[in-house]
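Thread: "does anyone have the structure for this chain?"

Original post by V.I.:
We have the sequence but no experimental structure in hand. Need at least a predicted one for the grant figures.
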Amino acid sequence: MRALMLALICPALLMGQTPNPPHLEIPRFSKAPSMARDADLSTWQGALDISDFGLIMPDDKGQNRWPTHAHLAWGPDAFYVAFECSDPEPHRVRAALHKRDDFSADLDFVGLDIDASGKGQSTIRLLATPLGGQFDAIVTDASGENYSYDCLWDSVGILMPNGYVVKIRVPYSSLRRRPGDWGLRFLRIMPRERRYGIAWPRMSKDIQCDICQIAKVSGAPVDTPGSPFMVIPFATYTRTQTTEPDADSRAKLGLDLRYSGT
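Reply from O.Q.:
Generated one for you, tokens below.
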């Protein structure tokens, strides 16, 4: 699966075209839209609607048969994206519960690449299945995807008669961010008789770089760079019960500290 994803993301090293990514202004919401696990997007009214997805896999020359809408908004606390994913054969959508970053089930998913630094050196890739299961990675042109990375973000998904709806929330506090323009791209993958992929903005394999083709977006309500430190507390509790009268219960508290260098 990861080899296939690298084939999708690493274009052929062919010269001849110059990247010309679009530049968008995303609206700001004073109130966060709903992240309920449903298809109701009434609180997303006013969000920017992106629908011009182009085929990128198995090639970038065919026609996109999977209508997809991405609704974008800067919220007061996070970046919000809602995907409406239609399918001409909705019974073929592959959705199941899975462990984080586990591609073994070969599921449908949708998501985004976001470069909150605007430097064009790397992106954070956040992908969600039709049921909201998560995959996340750091992506660079040189090394591809690194799924050992974990980000704090929210995703919910629900199957519909004609496809599925996924909502994603990316807190600004989870991003090593900078004021100014950010980089952004949306992806959708459909495993059918073969693996298909679409993206916005449209990508060309005739351009030797990948990240240079992602869109530039403005309007993020941040005026200071994000901290290089992230502190993530956690708590776990397990209980083991057998036919014997005794039970084994264990609680654990911990703290992860992460530092992102320049």
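V.I.: this helps a lot. The two ends are 30 Å apart (CA to CA).
O.Q.: and The chain has a mean pLDDT of 87.
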